[in-house]
Model the fold of this input.
Amino acid sequence: MVENKTFYVLVIENSEEDFQKLRGELNKRDFKVKSFHVDSVTKMEEALEIRNWDLFIAQCSSADFCSSKVLTLWRREGRGVPFIVVADDIDRDVTLKLIDCGVCDVVAKENLNSLVPAMERWLSNYAIQEAFQEKIKLFDDALLLMQEAKFKLQTLADAKKLAEQLALICPEPEKRVFGLRELFVNAIEHGNLGITFADKTVLNEKNIWDEEVERRLALPENADKYVEVTVERTFDEIKFLISDQGEGFDWQSYMSIDPFCSYKSHGYGIAMAKSGSFDKLEYIGRGNEVLAVVLLD
Done:
């Protein structure tokens, strides 16, 4: 999603020295970024009038940043594009408060090597939402009459198509599509096909993840494996129960983003879905079933 495109990043930072450190980190990677620096809310307002930005980055020192004019301006004028905070000191409570305020990710200042992977994750997420906008306009609201349905999917293409259709029955569908897609793909690759975290790390490094998924899908032992999705719509919520035929996994360690370890190439989809796509997300039993809930109020 982030290949072969130049992204325009607005950095809100009081210190020119800190901005140069951050820019140096961006320039270390094979990632096309043009970063621009402003040091006040007034200059940020001017920058917002000049062009549409793909991502915002700001440095903060405490959870008080939630009430800052910078974040208020981004929420009002930022078109919903990702906002990443670089924090001087990080603890769990501060991180959770910033995410509750709408911030996508929090990166530790002492761990700037995690900044670009965080940017790639959220730019990919936003690209999925942007591409989905046209389908929202064509939505047939007859689907809202559905009260209960069951689906079976097997391939990555199935996961993409079903996520887009089911997101349309939810309020703010552009927020839901990423989370549904992520949970479906996880159930296929990790659950039914047995691709481990370590396996995927190697596959990503070699850029052959898609090919390996297709290879495993073609194996005789996987021919009859499906992911089952049950949808239940009530007066006040929509429940998605997603079940795979795998042995489960240690899901607890994937429910939140660790800002000190976010340089890894994957493993954050569940936490991103939990914080950005659903009102409730919980794994059941050994982890081969997950319940995602969207409130309708």
Q: What stands out?
A: DSSP finds ten helices and ten strands in the chain. Residues 7-126 form a domain with the Rossmann fold fold (CATH 3.40.50.2300). The mean pLDDT is 84. The CA atoms of residues 70 and 76 lie 10 Å apart.
